[in-house]
Amino acid sequence: MIKRFLEPYLRRDAGYYPVVTLTGPRQSGKTVLAKAAFPEHDYVNLEETELRLFAKEDPRGFLNRFPRPVILDEVQRVPDIFSYIQTAVDRDDTPGRFILTGSHNFLLMKELSQTLAGRCGVLHLLPFSRAELEGDSPREPTTSRELFSNQSTKLDLWPCVRTGFYPRIHDRGIPPEVWLADYLQTYIERDVRSLVNVGDLETFERFLMITAGRVGQLLNFSSLAGDCGISVDTVRRWISVLKTSFIIMLLTPHHRNFNKRLIKSPKLYFYDTGLACHLLRIRDVNQLETHPLRGALFENYVIAEVAKAYLHSRRTPPIYFWRDQSGHEIDLLVEEGTELHPIELKSGQTFSPNMLDTLGWWCRLAGESPDRAMLVYGGSDSWELHGITVRPWFAV
Questions:
Q1: Where are the domains of the chain?
Q2: DSSP 28
Q3: Does the model's pTM come out above 0.90?
Q4: Gyration radius of the chain's alpha carbons
Q5: What's 7-124's CATH class?
Q6: Is 46 in a helix, a strand, or coil?
Q7: Which residues are CB-contacts of 65 (< 8 A; sequence separation ≥ 6)?
Q8: From CA 105, how far away is CA 246, in angstroms rounded?
Q9: Mean pLDDT of successive 10-residue stretches along the chain, which has 396 residues
């Protein structure tokens, strides 16, 4: 089993709270992690029809079957059980009594906020990070330099971007084009139908592909609606579904005003670049290296890895982008206390000094020291130039 960086935080929180919830996209490894972290716990999968019916019809009797601590997998399938868990932990609040896992973040958080507020720790598990896949030592991203401190890799950039990091692809050696096709079909048939009433699944599939074509772009609901032939309200609802099921992430703009009119719309990224490539019908690395969205997918890769580094360290990612209406843009801003650390992302393997121009301009505008700025590029070397740090793609 590949070691997950979130495991020590999961164990730690189970020593704090009577209930710990582990959520994330389907097939990100939640069940495997929960079982590995708590081998002495009983285990129940509420996807099983008989157990689910028992839990729905007699939730108190169902919970009484487990005098020992228990892992309840896919717990959002029985939403009424949260009230009975609350009653149980109010009687006995022994830490780590219930480990809950689930793939529908919206359903989970709604029930948790209503019934288990203050009694429950919530952690998010995404697919593997590059560092996890290579067996690197975990490091908590306390600073941007610590975040981008890895010095070596055995992997190549574009195969990483094309394949993505869903565990089963790597554990079982399944070709990504095979596994991702099945994953999307399962996601659409099961999760989408349960979260929102989608009458035309073909239209939703087309919406997914068009959304992948907007990776790294500002989210424009009206434009998406026009391209998909659906209403703006439908686009808003479907984007919400993709967010709550951990398919996409929206990177919000940072609003510090440097006497410029700033863009207020978020930018759209996928949590897994392999899934985005599959939706874009990119089937091999050669196609990816010359694809018009190559730069956007590189940007997506780095931002997703940064998000994993924070979430797998039990922290909310303090990440943003910055763009004004004149077209000046910083791809990634990391906020550390009162400090902002601008990071530019360039997919080229050959460094050019003009890659640093925007960073230098922004530092002068913001009154920030250049030593807080960083360029992450598609090459393999590290150095500093004009006070700005340059790091390779695998540094995070």
A1: 7-124, 130-395
A2: S
A3: yes
A4: 22
A5: alpha beta
A6: coil
A7: none
A8: 8
A9: 94 96 93 97 94 95 94 90 90 94 67 71 96 91 88 96 97 94 84 68 90 97 94 92 91 76 87 97 94 98 98 96 88 92 96 94 90 96 94 96
